[in-house]
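Lecture notes, continued. The same structure-token format from the folding unit now serves as the input rather than the output. Read the line below as a description of shape only.
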């Protein structure tokens, strides 16, 4: 099966084959005849990227029999797997929504005729107004973020869903779904799969409705979240190393034991429950006619679908804009293509929205009603957490601050002034261990701190000259971090890793200009997340070529935070290859990463590639040779 989709920026071709032999033959043939870059994403799939239609058809000619060519080109794979990084937007740019493409059968939500009200123009409006969410939820306040509003020259209101009893909006949808169940269904009990906010919402709802709730959670779920669910009365079962395994178990268990599976987002009653936030916003905004847009965090799509269903029915001119992390952009890609896609992986920094595939019903509503999606990076999310903390003294989880980051980026990109917007602060269930990383990234995301690397001569007085040049005549530069170590080879100079607070991009440009003109080459590393996560903690080996060993390759290895993961990884790599560098830091995410340096002689390069292939998809290897050389100043 071959699927093809053309963006306005690049062409993406995904080829899926029935068996490994076909995959190998097609891989070799396409590489030989087309020169495409290829990599195995699953044991039975190859992802090919090329930039012209002509070469795509050449690939088909080489990899398919004549009678199959037409059907191959016309076919659409039900599971369209895409890479998050293959879809990019400028910060604040609104994604395209493809409303012309016919809906595929795979994207149709299957349910009984009792739910035909979904297709009425006022169906969801009536259902939202008839919910019973206030048995457990409160009407959260709408607060103006005065400091932030002044800084961005627009009025931004925070819809404080982080103030719910479970510190998240999720209990609205969970309770509304469960309150609609029959007495017989409640007596049998409910089951769900979740590692976070939805689990607490279901547990609290079950306690109020006096029914049994089994909460299936991955074995890697932090103890604090497990304890919170149990405290609310949920019966926790730790199953599976990934969320997909956990969900599969929960669905099978539901069918086997006659339990009702409470979906986290793809259910009409869940969507209607989340939509009650829209009713509150509609009546809480001081001047509704001035409301430009409502920014909503997007994971599976239940929250934004419910809000859009209510707001757009009453006032279509109010924009409903979704916000996703750049590394978890399933809704943005689905809306742009006009069909749901499956991400090959997700960045779990904002774990509350780390979803590989959006819901069927949520996708239908979003394609009809949502104005688009804005993408933001992790440092911008961290900066938004800091913004909200400065306003409220509340510490949001990354997904809870997502909409604030999106609102800031959208207003800046479109150069808007004097507008009124609402951002939903959707949750505050953050692990304490993550705060240090968030604090570091916040300075970068707010553009108030720059991370730099400078090469200076290894000679007396050079260090003082560097400081004088960097600080400038006015002496106003505030250094926040500094790492330096003398190197043995004085002819090649020393590399300094340092950070400083900056007033503006122009201020940073002045600093870089002063240092480079003084023959002290300086690189801005502020946008390199790997530098914030790993390299800043390992710096101090100097900037000489001796800092790179013979045959050394540098990787960032991303892996799931499950017991035994590191041991499994190292057992494959060592002692066959010499490890030259290793840095691991617990980030509190569902996934973590290791900075790995390893000596790979040319004669063993193919063997190392086989090992990395065998470790996929649990372990993802990203080459960092160019990044590492830049940090060490070896690209000069």
């Amino acid at each position: 099966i071959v699927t093809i989709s053309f963006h306005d920026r690049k062409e993406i071709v995904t080829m899926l084959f029935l068996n490994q032999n076909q995959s190998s033959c097609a891989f070799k043939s396409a590489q030989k005849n087309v020169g495409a870059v290829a990599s195995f994403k699953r044991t039975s799939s190859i992802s090919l990227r090329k930039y012209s239609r002509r070469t795509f058809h050449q690939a088909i000619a080489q990899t398919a029999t004549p009678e199959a060519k037409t059907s191959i080109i016309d076919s659409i794979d039900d599971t369209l797997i895409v890479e998050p990084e293959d879809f990019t937007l400028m910060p604040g740019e609104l994604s395209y929504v493809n409303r012309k493409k016919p809906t595929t059968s795979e994207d149709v939500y299957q349910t009984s005729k009792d739910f035909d009200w979904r297709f009425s123009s006022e169906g969801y409006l009536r259902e939202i107004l008839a919910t019973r969410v206030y048995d457990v939820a409160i009407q959260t306040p709408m607060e103006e973020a005065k400091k932030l509003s002044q800084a961005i020259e627009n009025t931004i209101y925070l819809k404080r869903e982080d103030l719910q009893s479970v510190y998240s909006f999720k209990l609205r949808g969970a309770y509304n779904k469960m309150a609609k169940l029959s007495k017989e269904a409640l007596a049998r009990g409910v089951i769900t799969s979740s590692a976070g906010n939805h689990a607490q919402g279901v547990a609290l709802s079950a306690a109020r409705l006096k029914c049994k709730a089994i909460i299936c959670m991955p074995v890697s779920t932090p103890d604090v979240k497990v304890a919170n669910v149990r405290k609310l009365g949920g019966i926790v079962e730790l199953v599976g190393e990934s969320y997909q395994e956990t969900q599969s178990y929960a669905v099978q268990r539901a069918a086997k034991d006659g339990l009702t599976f409470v979906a986290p987002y793809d259910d009409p009653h869940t969507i209607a429950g989340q939509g009650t936030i829209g009713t509150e916003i509609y009546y809480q905004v001081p001047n509704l006619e001035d409301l430009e847009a409502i920014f909503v965090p997007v994971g599976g799509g239940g929250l934004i679908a419910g809000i859009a269903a209510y707001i757009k029915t009453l006032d279509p001119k109010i924009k409903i804009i979704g916000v996703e992390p750049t590394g978890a952009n399933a809704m943005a890609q689905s809306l742009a293509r006009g069909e749901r896609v499956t991400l090959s992986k997700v960045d779990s920094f904002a774990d509350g929205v780390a979803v590989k595939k959006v819901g069927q019903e949520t996708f239908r509503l979003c394609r009809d009603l949502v104005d688009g999606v804005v993408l933001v990076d992790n440092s911008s999310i961290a900066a938004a957490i800091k913004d909200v903390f400065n306003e409220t003294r509340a510490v949001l989880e990354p997904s809870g601050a997502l909409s604030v980051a999106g609102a800031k980026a959208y207003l800046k990109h479109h150069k808007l002034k004097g507008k009124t917007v609402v951002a939903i602060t959707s949750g505050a269930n953050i692990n304490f261990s993550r705060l240090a990383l968030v604090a570091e990234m916040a300075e970068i995301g707010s553009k108030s701190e720059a991370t730099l690397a400078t090469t200076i001569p290894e000679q007396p007085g050079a260090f003082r000259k560097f400081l004088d040049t960097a600080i400038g005549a006015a002496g106003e530069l505030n250094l926040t971090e500094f790492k330096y170590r003398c190197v043995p080879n004085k002819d090649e100079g020393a590399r300094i890793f340092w950070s400083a607070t900056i007033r503006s991009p122009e201020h940073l440009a002045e600093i870089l200009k002063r240092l480079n003109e003084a023959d002290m080459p300086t690189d801005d590393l502020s946008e390199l997340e790997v530098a914030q996560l790993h390299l800043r903690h390992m710096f101090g080996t100097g900037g000489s070529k001796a800092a790179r060993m013979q045959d050394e390759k540098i990787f960032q290895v991303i892996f799931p935070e499950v017991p035994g993961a590191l041991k499994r990884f190292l057992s494959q790599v060592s002692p066959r290859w010499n490890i030259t560098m290793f840095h691991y830091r617990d980030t509190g995410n569902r996934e973590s990463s290791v900075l790995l340096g390893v000596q790979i002689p040319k004669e063993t390069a193919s063997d190392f590639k086989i090992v990395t292939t065998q470790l996929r998809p649990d372990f993802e290897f990203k080459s960092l040779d160019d990044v590492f050389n830049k940090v060490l100043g070896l690209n000069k």
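Point for the exam: Residues 1-78, 541-546 have pLDDT under 50 and may be disordered.
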